[in-house]
Specification:
This protein has about 250 residues and is α+β, with helices and mostly antiparallel strands. It has one domain. It is about 25% helix and about 25% strand. Helix 1 crosses helix 3.
Length: about 250
C-alpha cells in the first residue's frame, strides 16, 4: 500500500515512527548511492552514540519506570518510615545513523557526509549539542556535507540560517568542502515531490543525483507503515489549517 501523500508523509514525523524511519531512510540512501557511485567510492552507514537523561527524552517509552517495594537495608530505626514509591529511570543510549562516502583509492578518505536530522537533533539537549558539534567541524573541513530535514517540529538546526518560505516546511542543504560558505538548498513542502539532490565527490567528477522521493518510497513500502497508521486521526505535529484541509480531501 503506497503512501497517500505525493511526497513526505507527515504521519511518519510522529515519535512513534520516526526512529524507525530515520534508520531505514539512511540505509536506503546507502543502497541508492552504492548503485550509482563510480568505481573507487563506497557509501557506508555509521552511528554516533550518546546518552540522554530520562526527563530529556522525546521518544515514547524511552525510559521505563516501575514501582517496586522498598526493602529495609541495614539496621532499622525505631522510627516508622512511611512506605515510599521507588522508580527506576536509567539514562538511555541514543544511536543515530548517518551516511559516509569514502574514497577507496585514497585509503578510505572521507569525501561526503549525509545526515538526516532526528527529533533529538532539533530539541534542546544532548542530541542537538552533539549534532551541532559535528556540524561545526564538517563545515570547516574539506568534506562535503548534505543535511536533510524532513521534520516540521523542533528548532531550525541545519547550518544555513532559517529562510522564511511559507509552505516549504522541509529542507535539504548542501555545503561543499571547498572552503566556501556557499549553501545549495532544496526547499519543499507537504504537497511537493521530494527532490533529487546533488551529492558531490571530487573536483574531477560530476555530482551524482540522489532521488529522495525514491528513497522515501522504498522506506514507506519496506516498513509497511500503511498497515499501522491511522489516517483518520490528525498527524503529529498538526498541519497548518490549509494543509489539513488538503490532506483531509486527499485521504477521503
Amino acid at each position: 500500500m503506497p503512501s497517500p501523500f505525493p511526497g513526505m508523509d507527515p504521519y511518519l514525523e510522529s515519535p512513534d515512527y520516526w526512529r524507525d524511519v530515520h534508520s531505514s531512510f539512511l540505509v536506503e540512501v546507502r543502497v541508492a548511492l552504492n548503485a550509482t557511485l563510480p568505481p573507487g567510492f563506497v557509501a557506508r552507514t555509521e552511528e554516533r552514540l550518546y546518552v540522554v537523561e530520562p526527563d530529556r527524552s522525546i521518544y515514547p517509552d524511552i525510559a521505563l519506570t516501575r514501582q517496586v517495594p522498598e526493602r529495609p537495608t541495614g539496621r532499622v530505626s525505631a522510627a516508622v518510615i512511611d512506605k515510599p514509591v521507588v522508580y527506576f529511570a536509567p539514562p538511555e543510549e541514543i544511536r543515530e545513523s548517518f551516511v559516509e562516502i569514502r574514497s577507496v583509492k585514497q585509503g578510505g578518505q572521507l569525501v561526503t557526509v549525509i545526515e538526516l536530522l532526528s527529533l533529538a537533533n532539533k530539541m534542546s539537549g544532548r542530541g542537538r549539542e552533539e549534532y551541532r558539534r559535528k556540524q561545526y567541524d564538517l563545515l570547516r573541513s574539506d568534506v562535503h556535507f548534505l543535511e536533510i530535514d524532513l521534520l516540521r517540529a523542533g528548532e531550525h538546526t541545519i547550518a544555513l540560517p532559517k529562510l522564511s518560505e511559507p509552505g516549504k516546511e522541509y529542507l535539504a542543504c548542501l555545503h561543499r568542502g571547498d572552503g566556501s560558505w556557499r549553501f545549495v538548498t532544496w526547499a519543499f513542502g507537504l504537497r511537493d515531490r521530494l527532490p533529487r539532490v546533488a551529492v558531490p565527490l571530487t573536483e574531477e567528477l560530476p555530482d551524482i543525483a540522489l532521488d529522495l522521493q525514491e528513497v522515501f518510497t522504498a522506506v514507506y513500502d519496506g516498513g509497511r507503515y500503511g498497515a499501522t497508521i491511522d489516517y483518520t486521526q490528525p498527524p503529529l505535529p498538526i498541519l497548518r489549517p490549509e494543509d489539513a484541509q488538503w490532506a483531509k480531501a486527499l485521504l477521503l
